[in-house]
Amino acid sequence: MPGIGICSAALTYWDATDWGADGMARALKPQHKDKKAFVQDGSDYMATLKTLPDFGCVMHAQLAE
What we know:
With 65 residues, the protein is mainly beta. It has one domain. It is built from one helix and six strands, in the order ββαββββ. The protein has one helix at residues 13-16, and strands spanning 5-6, 11-12, 17-19, 26-28, 38-39, 50-51. The strands form three sheets. It has a two-stranded antiparallel ribbon with strand order 1-6. Strands 2-5 form a two-stranded parallel sheet. A two-stranded antiparallel ribbon has the order 3-4. It is elongated. The model has no long low-confidence stretch (mean pLDDT 84).
């Protein structure tokens, strides 16, 4: 779709977290403490949030066609 981009503000949840001290839950890595959005798919392999230019993401970047 023309104009679609990827929100680079949203990190992959698996990459932005580590196992917490209890070994049961994920905990945000210190370097990502200010992040507000994350994406996750069923495999934790890869996920992206794709947006249209009017979505409001200030980090919008046009995809190559």
